[in-house]
Amino acid sequence: MRLPTKQLISKIETLSNDLSQDQLSNFLDIINAMTALVEEASELSNTDGAIKIKEAPAVGSIIH
């Protein structure tokens, strides 16, 4: 499922309101790891001449 950026940010903010600090930290670690995987996949696909995957912003900078 792919969400528009604003909707994705809204869902993350809503979810983060219900998490403890520890849970939020773990959640953001997972999101950051997933972002790294997307970036790595993008780099690998570029070396194969495939279509470039658009890079996602770091989620940690989205949550206040």
Describe the structure.
- This protein starts with a helix and ends in a 17-residue tail after the last helix.
- It has 64 residues and is mostly helical.
- The chain is built from 2 helices and no strands.
- It is flat and about 40 Å long.
Compact summary:
The chain is built from 2 helices and no strands.
Question: What brief labels describe this structure?
Answer:
64 residues
- The level of helicity is 55-70%
Largest sheet: none
| Secondary-structure element series | HH
Say what oligomer this is: single chain
Topology at a glance:
Blueprint: H1 5-17, H2 21-47
